[in-house]
Amino acid sequence: MEAMEKIIEDATVELIRRAVTTLPQDVVAALETARAAETEATARRELGIMIENVREAGRCALPMCQDTGIPVFFVKMGHRHVAGLEDALARAVRRATELVPLRRNVVDPLTRANTGDNTGVRMPYVTYSFTDADYLEIAYMPKGAGSENMSALAMLCPPVVVGVGIGGSADACMGLAKKALMRPAGSKNPAPAYARLEEELLEQINATGIGPMGLGGRTTALAVHVERADCHTASLPVGINLQCYAARRASVRVYEDGRVEYGGE
């Protein structure tokens, strides 16, 4: 195994551990802000339980949710192409499954046979982009089934972060919706029209009164993030992907000289 592959593998094991045990501070801040603004006692209680759960997970260095998700990576490639990258990511997932530990979630879609190590056919799922930089950046999103199922089913367990993809093609807009969930909670789209759309959607979602855990209140969504791509003049694809309050994510940059820097917490 090449030295760079081993560095990436080791860094990714730690990346996964950080992602499932520590919630990014922007998400914690959004939960605390929501609790302070809540007028419903039940909603305040539920938000408080969520916040305490996150803090306890950090203290114990254990996953904050029993559903540690399926492995979803967003890889930003710099100048250097790393042969064997996906093999290194898969090895890291297998190791993290044992070491963190992670729940064994990956199964065959028809037979439901469990692979036992959270890897399998086209799993982990990797999305690539490219940058003019001297590093490889790996962002990790452990995508749990509860929030993922909400993308297609009317099963609500808020507060949620709503990712919206607009434009592109049918498959591209769903990818944009998931990518939107990687943004810091409450960050704004740089295009004013889309920033206004995010604000309007957040206001309307919270006006439903569904509230935390569906028990009523002012906080149904913590944030709405919209990402866009230009599309065909005769179509307007829209994709929606939801993330639960445990909006877990982490990232790591691996430089050409072997340096490793973690972020996204």
Which strands sit side by side, in order, in the main sheet?
A: 2-1-3-7-8
Oligomer: single chain
**Could you say which overall geometry the principal axes of the C-alpha atoms support?**
globular
Percent range of helical residues = 25-40%
Which spans have pLDDT < 50 for at least 5 consecutive residues?
Answer: 152-156
Backbone structural class: alpha/beta
Intertermini distance: 30 Å
* Amount of beta strand: 15-25%
Mean residue pLDDT: 89
List the total number of helices. Answer: 7
Based on DSSP secondary structure assignment, what is the total number of beta strands?
A: 8
Largest sheet: 5 strands, mixed
Radius of gyration: 19 Å
Q: From N to C, what is the helix and strand string?
A: HHHEHEEHEHHEEEE
Describe the structure.
It is built from 7 helices and 8 strands; from the N terminus they run H-H-H-E-H-E-E-H-E-H-H-E-E-E-E. It is of the alpha/beta class. It has a 5-stranded mixed sheet with strand order 2-1-3-7-8. The chain has a 3-stranded mixed sheet with strand order 5-4-6. The radius of gyration is 19 Å and the shape is globular. About 2% of the residues have low confidence.
Question: Which short descriptors sum up this protein?
Answer:
265 residues; 5-stranded mixed sheet; 3-stranded mixed sheet; 7 helices; globular
Q: What is shown here, in short?
A:
The chain has 265 residues and is an alpha/beta fold. The chain is 37% helix and 22% strand. It starts with a helix and ends with a strand.
